[in-house]
């Protein structure tokens, strides 16, 4: 039986389908497993990094050198696809990881803006949100860190998908408002609607997130994550 975490790994891996030779920059366990699964299956040209200065292969062996200046060239030229987190995200994909409340006097200080503006304006950015709730999916973010479609400029801005523990969402709708693309098996559309703080674009027939193949399940369980760490981010259901 496929676990909820395994559906999330598959959904994250699909973010990098047909990306070609771009640098995958996953942040978090589930996105990392997704990127490695994509590289082993349908996106063999994907580039993986050790997070410092090396490009690495499937088993972590060095494949190339990626000094910071070359990394920045990829970042600013659309040759990287990041999967980030979000403390808040709104209907147009504006993301907040900086603060909660008025930015002049916030009630909570978070990570800070960091590289989110550069990421979202200069290369594709997807999001991984392990707990889908109205506290994260808000009508208006308290501060824009990552730039959404209603504030975007530049040729490389693209937000392919948002993956959560409940569903997959994208912006394939008129005006680029967030759309419910699929629900994970065992989840209903009403559950996703109730966990979202704004009105999603929802079609008449929302599909389920695709099933992993037998080989993909084997890779997840025996190669990509043999220790079962995926269940730390998404509890079995």
How is the main sheet built? 6 strands, mixed
Strand order of the largest sheet: 1-5-10-11-12-13
**Quick one: how many beta strands?**
13
Domain count, please report it: 1
- Helicity, in percent? 10-25%
- The gyration radius over C-alpha positions equals 17 Å
Mean pLDDT: 91
Structural class comes to: alpha/beta
Write down the secondary-structure element order. HEHEEEHEEEEEHEEEEHHH
- The gross shape turns out to be globular
List the helices and strands and how they pair.
Blueprint lengths: L3 H11 L8 E4 L2 H12 L7 E2 L4 E3 L5 E4 L2 H8 L4 E5 L3 E2 L5 E2 L2 E2 L7 E2 L6 H7 L2 E5 L32 E3 L2 E4 L8 E5 L5 H6 L19 H11 L5 H4 L4
Parallel strand pairs: 1-5, 5-10, 10-11
Antiparallel strand pairs: 2-3, 3-4, 6-7, 8-9, 11-12, 12-13
Helix pairs in contact: 1-2, 2-6
Protein name: CoA-transferase
Family: Belongs to the 3-oxoacid CoA-transferase subunit B family.
Structural overview:
The strands form four sheets. The chain has a six-stranded mixed sheet with strand order 1-5-10-11-12-13. It is built from seven helices and 13 strands. The model has no long low-confidence stretch (mean pLDDT about 90). It is about 25% helix and about 20% strand. It starts with a helix and ends with a helix. By secondary structure, it is of the alpha/beta class. The chain has helices spanning about 5-15, 30-40, 70-75, 115-120, 190-195, 215-225, 230-235, and strands spanning about 25, 50, 55, 60-65, 80-85, 90, 95, 100, 110, 125-130, 160-165, 165-170, 180-185. Strand 6 and strand 7 form a beta hairpin. It has one domain (about 5-230): 3-Layer(aba) Sandwich (Glutaconate Coenzyme A-transferase).
């Amino acid at each position: 039986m496929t676990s909820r975490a395994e559906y999330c790994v598959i959904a994250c891996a699909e973010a990098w389908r047909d990306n070609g030779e771009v640098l995958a920059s996953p942040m978090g366990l589930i996105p990392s497993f997704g990127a490695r699964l994509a590289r082993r299956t349908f996106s063999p040209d994907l580039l993986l990094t050790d997070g410092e200065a090396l490009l690495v292969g499937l088993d972590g062996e060095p494949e190339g050198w990626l000094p910071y200046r070359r990394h920045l060239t990829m970042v600013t030229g659309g040759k990287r696809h990041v999967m980030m987190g979000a403390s808040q995200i709104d209907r147009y994909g504006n993301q907040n990881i900086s603060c909660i409340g008025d930015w002049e006097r916030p009630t909570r200080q978070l990570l800070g803006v960091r590289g989110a503006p550069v990421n979202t304006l200069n290369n594709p950015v997807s999001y991984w949100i392990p707990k889908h709730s109205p506290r994260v999916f808000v009508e208006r973010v308290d501060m824009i860190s990552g730039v959404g479609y209603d504030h975007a400029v530049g040729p490389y801005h693209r937000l392919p998908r948002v993956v959560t523990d409940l569903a997959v969402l994208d912006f394939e709708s008129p005006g680029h408002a967030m759309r419910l693309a699929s629900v994970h098996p065992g989840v209903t559309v009403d559950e996703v609607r109730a966990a979202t703080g704004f009105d999603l674009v929802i079609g008449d027939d929302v599909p389920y997130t695709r099933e992993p193949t037998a080989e993909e399940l084997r890779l997840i369980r025996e190669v990509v994550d043999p220790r079962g760490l995926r269940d730390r981010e998404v509890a079995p259901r």
